[in-house]
Amino acid sequence: MNIVYHVRVIKAVAVRDFKIRITYIPWIMNSLLQPIAWTLILVYAYRSIMGPGSREILTAHGWAGDPVGFLVLGQVLLSLFNALNWRAGMAIQRERWYGTLELILQAPASRIAVLAGSSLFGLVDAGWASFLSALAVIALTNATFNIVDPLAAATSVALAAVGALSMGVGLAGLYVLTRSAGPIAIAIQHPTRFFTGSSFPLAILPAVLQYVGYAIPLTYGLEAVRMTMLQGAGLSDVEPLLYRLLILSLASSMLGVAMVRWAEEVARRNGWLHTF
Amino acid sequence: MYAIEAEGLEKEYKMGLISKRRVKALRGVSLRIRRGTLYSLLGPNGAGKTTLVKILATLLIPDAGWARVAGFDVAREAVEVRKRVGVVLGGERALYWRLTGWSNLWFFSQLYGIPPGEARRRIRELIELVGLQGWEHVRVENYSKGMKQRLHIARGLLNDPEVLLLDEPTIGLDPAAAKEVRGLIRRIVAEGRTVLLTTHYMAEAEELSDRVGIISGGRIIAEGSPGEVKKIIGGRMVVVSLTGHPREASMLATLLGARARSIDGVIAIEAMVEDEEEFIDKVLGEALRRGLRVRKVEVREPSLEEAFIRLTGEGQ
Amino acid sequence: MGGYTPSKLQVLRASLASYARDVLALYSAWGFVLVRLSVPVFMVATAWALSKIASPSGLVASLGYGDYVGYVALGFAFFTMLTTTLFEVGERIHREMVQGTLETVLLTPASRLAWLIGGALGSLLISLVDVALVIVYYVALFGGEVYLGGAPYALAGLLLSLAGMMGMGIALAGLVVNLKEPHAFNVMLTPFLMLLSGMMFPVEALPEPVEAVSRLIPVTHGIEVVRSSLLQGESASQLLWILGLEALVYTMVGYMVFRLLEARARRLGGLGSF
After folding, report:
1. For chain C, does the N or the C end have fewer beta carbons within 10 angstroms?
2. Which of B25, B98, B112 sits opposite A108 (nearest CB)?
3. For residue A155, how many other CB atoms are within 10 A of its CB?
4. If contacts are CB pairs under 8 Å, which of residues 25-64 in chain B contact chain A?
5. Beta partners for B194?
6. What residue numbers bound the domain in which B125 lies?
7. Strand, helix or coil at C236?
8. With a cut of 0.95, is the ipTM above it?
9. Among B176, B211, B231, where does a domain finish?
């Protein structure tokens, strides 16, 4: 019974988010067009700064593959993260904006199920938008890929999505503690773009900055996806990356859930549920 | 026997991270509400009404004291309480405006774990109960204030609660919409549920309640049936209608510690007094001395509003 | 009794003051300050990372810009400034509509254009702080250099493109006020403007028809003038003429569109749905 109840809560939250989402047509167009424009900006920037030898330059920095494919994959996963940052991460904050947070917490439903519902919708919503925009960019730029092991590529993409999702849940734990969650969510997108190496090979950064990058689950996901889809790597090549990704994702999710629970307890003691 | 019991509830809010200003919202509130009755909690703004409702709804943890709702402790058995209580917080928010009324109810029905078939049946019943037939598939952003409030009440009843907590459900509504909501509350009590209603509309409490509690400064200062609360303050209301110079009438009222109101050239001198005969004698004597003519003398029971003003010192 | 008509300057000042109050309220939330401070750092840092894989045979280098970090820093700073001006006009009208104050403002005898320009000037002042911040980051964190001798040309280019963008903004406001989500529209348009403005790369890299479109937007020429003056110490006088022409055309178009919209709103009744 309990599992059925949790599944129903997850479904109800995801369906609610979907129904609300489709009333915001400009934002749907936005989630499709933004990644296209950003990828094109980077593609033209690469062409303009590297000239005709961009493939060789990238190879010299450890990425033997099509530079456009490199950028497309970086942008797809970054868009996925950005969407989950706003969906899973801001799930609780959004209830505050709607004025429904107290009613959600007053219901006996599991908070994790509520968060999972928002995350699930976020994943689906961001997934199709990222996929379609990637297709559009590929059509516009003739990006090429080199997939030898489709299973490895699919596993890498799936686990990279898990990494993005876990970061969303982790951030939910941060956002629940502040009234400035909206601006912080915007502010977080830019360092994530930089440190995960979505727009350039991480190897060009000084070691100390690379350490920051490798503390982020998405960085591993991105590397595994690029290796399997651009360089023809197999599952055994990316296995170590995927293990690290899973460990970091688990830690991030657990931290997020613990923080949300703790924040609820503190808010119930201090009467902050409706104000912060 | 009691649907709601509370003993010595205390709650203090700390305001701001730096200043640490403290506001004591509840100072030892004790309460007992019998099953199947409507209890109104009356109080001025900031008296502690909403804090008490939120503690009973498990949204706040008290600093001291305990409370049981539907037989379960609100702090230790919060999930059991949540299953059995419905909450309607005042105001227009707390609904998904971009969803239809039906979708709002459906979503919350799932959070309460109601099986889909039963949820559909229940939502249909509730839509009918609150009179939103024909509007259930319209987005909430197109509803009037009164319709939103009725939808709130339907949402509060989704889990078929033993206890319904209504926090100022008629606030901001026009008289017709408020009347509809009051009619709805009456039907809910007739179904055998226990309702705790907070309001600062006296007439509403007088019309609906089995028992009334008056809360002020975080304490319940009077409790009983509406009639009993009016009796607690003792006195009777005397209204003497006069004509003549308004300034003289106003001086007369000040001298006798009464209130003067002017309506269509007639000045009403009002006071709640222990000995009505003595007061009337004084008014008649002073009126004669000041050249005022007495038109009518009326002695009646005070209204709950007058009792409230006397008890809380509001409006002084 | 009554009969006062406020001067345009009076209206402009009042509009500017009400904008300033709005902004101060926004900045009382530390999250907004964080965004304002951090976003430019990572924008410039991305350029710094990309500069490590730059090649002398690239277009940027062949146009004489040896330092890609400076290229993007100035591009980003002035792009942000100019597009904020562009969007703020529409967003302000929408904000006043949502607050229910638009009708009240339009009922007064105040000049509508002065009221709009007052708000735009307010956003411009805030953007100037952002520009200064990016230049400080560029110089202090990334060891960049700017030719201060080119500042008068940069200022001239900036003023002309501002006039053009303001005109475009007013014209765009006519479209935006009819949308329920002007912010979504603006967020959607921003990356495309970024693409067309040459903020991160020279517009010459774009396919020819797209490049032609990009040259119709005052921000593209504005950024080119600012860059060539501040990074190369050039006067770019020819570009200034083109910018001046664009500014004139867009201001006139903007003013006409605004008058048309106002007349339409009065004809149809309901300034609230303006």
Report:
1. N
2. B112
3. 18
4. 25, 51, 54, 57-61
5. B163
6. 2-231
7. coil
8. no
9. B231
